[in-house]
Design brief:
InterPro entries: P2CMN_synthase_LarB, PurE_dom. GO terms for molecular function: hydrolase activity. Residues 120-252 form the PurE domain. It holds the Pfam family AIRC. This is 1-(5-phosphoribosyl)-5-amino-4-imidazole-carboxylate carboxylase. It is a single chain. This protein is of the alpha/beta class. The protein has two domains: 48-110, no CATH class; 122-248, Rossmann fold (3-Layer(aba) Sandwich), CATH 3.40.50. 38% of the residues lie in helices and 17% in strands. It contains eleven helices and eleven strands. Strands 8-7-9-10-11 form a five-stranded parallel beta sheet. β10, α10 and β11 form a beta-alpha-beta unit. The two termini are 26 Å apart.
Amino acid sequence: MDASDLESLARAVAAGELSPGELVERVRVGAVADLGYAQVDTERGVRTGVSEVIYGAGKSAAQIAGIVDAMRGAGQERILITRMDERKATELAEMGCSFAYHAEAHAGVVGELPEPDGNGEILVLTAGTSDIAVAEEAVLTARFLGNSVTCVNDAGVAGIHRLLRHGEEIARAQVIIAIAGMEGALPSVVGGLAACPVIAVPTSVGYGANLGGLTALLAMVNSCASGVSVVNIDNGFGAAYQASLINHLPGKR
């Protein structure tokens, strides 16, 4: 259960559609579901506004299924599973777990994606086509968290006119996620154009001296553009989560 679910229950009580006792029963769930191999935080959504997300890498399909069951048993109807390959997704489906698999994002979603309720639009920019997998994770995560998202691919600084032709989208965005490998220059350029926060995502795309994304990471951390923050290498999820927090800050739309 997340904060919006709790608010819906409270509204139902106020409207006389749910009794106070029924509300107590709905929310009276232990803070942790102990599965032995996992301690599922069933009250994270109430505390933070976003329920726990399952990181699929390193977990078996059976473990993921067990965690999904625990979350759904605690009242969580919408669940995001990140870093899940197609083989594991197939195994999970064969176990009877109902979810939609998004192959390009390497992620699964239990339940329906919500209608956007953020203050504005999140713009996701990639420097090159090779960065799309990270961008897809960011886009899906942002939409899962209730944001309107536009994605522009292959707009790196090697052909800067490709980026400049999207000036309208840059000006309209509430938050921008700039994703780049190689030397990681894109976020600095975007930071010099945008009036909103820019979240930089270094990727492991590049030749040897890219060092698996470390070169791009260091370039982004040392950006001379104001308003640029940086997440870890290939961390599209983390960038989208932070962007969603910014896009849902109280204020005028």
